[in-house]
Amino acid sequence: MTSLEIAQAFLNSRLTSRMCDFPDQFPGRPMTETKGYEIQAAHLSLLQSHFGGGLSGYKAGFITRETRIQFGGIERLGIDTPTYGGILERFTFRELGRVPFRELLHPSVESEMVMRIGRDIPMSADGYDRESIAPYVDACMAGIELVDFHLPFSSFSAPLAPLMLADNACNWGVVIGPPVTSWRELDLANLRGELWHNGELIECGLGSALAGHPLNVLVGLESRLLKLGKTLRAGEIVMLGSVVRNFSINGPCEIRATWDALGTATAIFD
Question: Model-level pTM greater than 0.90?
């Protein structure tokens, strides 16, 4: 199968709410990050063509060691580094997102910190570090990543990460809370993020779980984009990765991600 044919199968899975029926070693299966990202690019192009609109930004995945271990670690994933995907404008919800539970296949959620870019980051051969990238961030906020799988990944052999990358890093959408522009007054590394399910606290974590400091995740994404001849643009959002383990959704429910000083994002699965 070509990259486009695999991408089309992922789109069809999303539209029909049926898992892709690929065998484990299907023709064209991505076995490297490079191939995974190649299919992801085709997948994103098809998603944008079908749903309309562009990308609202990017997501970072597998930022914490705990999340990587949850999905089998380097032995199963085949990587021990962060991954990235695109976020569709059409499925970027502000403060409250209503999610059609019955249309999703294997839904789950994560509590994340989000950054919004205030102005285009100039292309730089020297790249950026935490201090030099900070002036380009105009707001931080609470966020929920809405995750869905279009393959039964647990039944596939290693490496899983390239397959997950091809499935747009398993992103279905996001909910972001109200922007906090006074974020520079906050100690982001020591902010506490929580995940709540129907009013019950599931798990919590600190901003320091995000590569030591949330801005470090932004630096990593920008470094990758620069290598591709791209950069972060004004108005784009970046989901910085989860500070809690991926939490499966088994039926209609309310999910809240709350962050100290950054507020709340809410998802209603109905």
Answer: yes
Q: Are strands 247-248 and 253-259 parallel, antiparallel or unpaired?
A: unpaired
Q: Are 112 and 241 in contact (CB under 8 A)?
A: yes
In CATH, what class is 3-269? alpha beta
Angle at CA 203, nearest 5°, toward 200 and 208? 145
The rounded distance, in Å, linking the Cα atoms of 54 and 49 is 9
- Cis geometry, peptide bond prior to residue 159 (ω within 30 degrees of 0): yes
Q: How far apart are CA 89 and CA 44, in angstroms?
A: 12
Give pLDDT, residue 222: 97
Q: How many CB atoms lie within 10 A of CB 125?
A: 5
Residue 70's closest CA among 251, 241, 266, 253? 241
Residues of the chain with pLDDT under 50: none
Residue 255 to residue 245: CA distance in whole angstroms: 14
31 conformational bin, left if phi > 0, alpha if psi -120 to 50, beta if neither: alpha
Domain segments of the chain as ranges? 3-269
